[in-house]
Amino acid sequence: MTHRLGDPLARLSTQSLGLRRPLVAVLVSLDPLVLAGGHSFESDLIEVAGAESLTHASGLWRVPARVDEIRARRPELVLVAMPAIPAAHAQAAVRTWFDPIPVAFVALDPDAVLDGSLEAAQAIRAAVAARE
Fold first, then answer.
1. What is the DSSP string of 8-71?
2. Helix (DSSP H) and strand (DSSP E) numbers for the chain
3. Per-domain residue ranges for the chain?
4. CB under 8 Å to 4, separation ≥6 — which residues?
5. What pTM did the predictor assign?
6. Using 50, 70 and 90 to split pLDDT, how confident is the model at 6?
7. Among residues 2, 22, 66, 105, which one has the fewest Cβ atoms lying within 10 Å of its Cβ?
8. Is 104 in a helix, a strand, or coil?
9. Rounded-to-integer distance, Cα 70 and Cα 19, Å
10. What are phi and psi of 17, to 5 degrees?
């Protein structure tokens, strides 16, 4: 079981070796606005996908946030990683908050680590690559 998930994630991780790692803000809640903390499952997955989490240095699992604070840190991508992708009107609102920073949405449930982690990491890698 471990190899079924770990090996593909390791292969994905090696694709970004030696490349610049863009800074990504990972939102795990929109109301209230919350960032994935450093070394949370979401932040670790961001790093596997070839980027660096805005909260990498944080020891907290979740970090309350404000739009102006996130914008001030100048992420190159805002990633909304939640168990369900928000409705179209919520997606439009988030894009407005962070414009012109690109925003991507990925379905990711940290409580279901084995279900969908590889697909989520691949989607994150694609979002990171698309903003380059």
1. HHHHHHHTTTTS---EEEEEEEETTEEEEPTTSHHHHHHHHTT-EETTTT---SEEE--HHHHH
2. 5, 6
3. 2-130
4. none
5. 0.77
6. very low
7. 2
8. strand
9. 24
10. -60, 130
Question: Which pLDDT band, with edges at 50, 70 and 90, does 127 fall under?
Answer: confident
pLDDT tens for 16-40 read: 555 567 899 999 999 999 999 988 8
Give the pLDDT mean for 65-88.
95
- Tokens 């996908």 correspond to 49
Quick count: other Cβ atoms within 10 Å of Cβ 14? 11
Alpha carbon separation from 118 to 12, 27, 63, 66, 78 (Å, rounded): 9, 19, 24, 29, 20
Q: Position of tokens 């380059």?
A: 132
Which tokens go with 66? Answer: 């404000």
Q: Would you say residue 125 has pLDDT above 90?
A: no
Pick the CATH number of 2-130 from 3.10.180.10, 3.30.70.260, 3.40.50.1980, 1.10.150.40: 3.40.50.1980
